[in-house]
Amino acid sequence: MASNPPQALRLTFAWQGAQVRLVGSERVAMIAPGSLTTPPEPGQTGYWFEVHDATGRVIYRRPLHKPIRTDVEAFSPDTQPSIARVPVATSEGRFTLLIPDTADGQTFALHGPSDPARADEPAGELLRLDVDALRRFKPPRGTRP
Question: Disulfide engineering: 92 pairs with which of 16, 117, 129, 132, CB 3.0-4.6 Å?
């Protein structure tokens, strides 16, 4: 007897400056990474995403490591090794994440600073999407996810 494998949604987001939008959603047969059980502290900085059930209870939470890049590591050409962070030349990009595709998942929420260049500021909700809409999402024709 064959069992149904666990399902996840692979979500692709595009960002430009501080604006984030969904550009792709694909259902995949796999287990999403484990959930973080510790809730964020008041005034928490950084990025994370959550899946909520119909009552608004968080059923899945994962941290993200700077999905919106504002700087990169640069190595000095000197003989003394040194590393510095320098601003990136572009203000757009993409990132992908996985969420479990379970029957009790109702909403997806992405949290982070309102201005990516000010990562030390408390995070807020950047985007909230209905999980059923994520399952049905089709990108506009002629665009790549």
Answer: 16
- Residue 132 to residue 99: CA distance in whole angstroms: 13
pTM metric for this prediction = 0.85
Per DSSP bridges, beta strands 107-112 and 124-130 are: antiparallel
Q: Does 1 score more than 50 pLDDT? A: no
Q: Are 60 and 32 in contact (CB under 8 A)?
A: yes
C-alpha to C-alpha distance for 108 and 122, rounded to whole angstroms: 19
pLDDT surpassing 90 at residue 54: yes
Six-digit token pair at 102? 């379970």
| Fold adopted by 7-136 | Immunoglobulin-like (2.60.40)
Residue 20, beta-bridge partner list: 15
CA 66, CA 52: separation in Å to the nearest integer? 22
Domain boundary assignment for the chain: 7-136
Q: Which residues fall within 8 angstroms of residue 142, CB to CB, at 6 or more apart?
A: none
Residue type, 141: R
Residue given tokens 């002629």 in the structure block:
142
Instruction: Give strand ranges (E) for 17-114.
Output: 19-29, 47-52, 58-64, 71-75, 83-87, 92-100, 107-112
Banded pLDDT at 133 (limits 50, 70, 90): very high
